[in-house]
Design brief:
Helix content is 61%, strand content 12%. By secondary structure, it is of the alpha+beta class. It has three domains: 54 residues, no CATH class; 127 residues, no CATH class; 71 residues, no CATH class. This is DUF5673 domain-containing protein. Keywords: Membrane, Transmembrane, Transmembrane helix.
Length: 299
């Protein structure tokens, strides 16, 4: 029965290769499995051997590659574009607000100005990375991917990122409050203070939108192509990967896995795909993929 189970598993894996979350993949695989075993039971009742029954059942289910296209998830190609738009808008608002505080308040806010410049550089590099990934995604959209790397709809992996974004946003709010208090002490009118406060609120809103866009798992498929691996923020060609390892983390009594890549050359002004979250159901598939590419495990 082991060989039959492997055939069924291969069929289910192929049929669900373009599904991006483990939850949805499990639902669809359970549904397909019910149909397969229903056929098997029917054929076995007719006196057909178990091996032949499995083969006939899978044949009746159709081509798994054709099924995979019907279950294909959306990749949210415009998510990066909106992210870039909000980053550029944020950079513009930050630059504008620094000029306003200098002109209206007439004070030298060295700490907040330095912090704003640092944040601008950080987000500018983020935008550059996203634009590169966007161009590569457009180029690769003309070819068929091998499969999607599955993650989770609501992942505990993102708790650390959410905490970081909350701390980051709290820091931004504190800096803006320092600006506001300093402006208040400088004797500005209520109209001028209200205007500066409005700019601050817009800045916080933009930070919040970008933080949600960066750390939300929705629509951030890691896609495996013949040329390499495309994630939300970067593309890594196979020839630049010298090794990999699969890290396991236990969170709330549940095992989570990450694919960590060792690169020959670090990308400039772009994120490296050094830590890609993967579903436990794809561990064997990932290992077989790297073995086929002659890339060895370094862990």
């Amino acid at each position: 029965m082991n060989a039959e189970n492997k055939n069924i598993q291969r069929f289910l894996q192929s049929a669900c290769r373009f599904i991006s979350t483990e939850e949805r993949s499990i639902e669809i695989q359970d549904e397909l499995r019910d149909h397969i075993y229903s056929y098997i039971e029917e054929y076995k009742n007719d006196g057909i051997s178990e091996e032949s029954a499995v083969n006939m059942a899978l044949k009746n289910m159709g081509d798994p590659n054709t099924l995979s296209k019907s279950y294909r998830d959306k990749t949210y190609k415009y998510k990066r574009l909106f992210h870039v738009f909000f980053v550029i808008l944020l950079l513009s608002v930050n630059a504008f607000s620094m000029i306003l505080y200098d002109r209206i308040a007439g004070i030298n806010l060295s700490i907040t100005v330095f912090a704003a410049l640092f944040i601008n550089v950080f987000f500018a590099l983020d935008a550059v990375s996203l634009i590169k990934a966007l161009k590569k995604d457009k180029e690769l959209s003309k070819v068929e991917p091998i499969f999607y790397i599955k993650s989770y709809k609501t992942s505990t992996w993102d708790e650390k990122a959410v905490k970081f974004s909350q701390i980051f946003l709290a820091g931004i709010v504190i800096l803006i409050l320092i600006n506001y208090i300093t402006s208040l002490k400088s004797g500005l009118s209520n109209g001028e203070l209200d205007f500066l406060s409005t700019i601050d609120y817009i800045t916080i809103l933009l930070y919040f939108i970008i933080a949600i866009s960066m750390y939300s798992p929705k629509g951030k498929n890691a896609i495996v192509y013949n040329d390499g691996i495309l994630t939300y923020q970067s593309f890594t060609p196979w020839e630049n990967i010298q090794g990999y390892r699969l890290d396991k983390e236990l969170i709330k009594s549940k095992s989570y896995y990450s694919l960590v890549l060792s690169l020959k050359k670090e990308p400039k002004f772009a994120y490296k795909n050094s830590n890609i979250k993967i579903s436990s159901s794809q561990l064997g598939l990932i290992e077989a993929l790297f073995k086929n590419k002659n890339i060895k495990s370094v862990g």
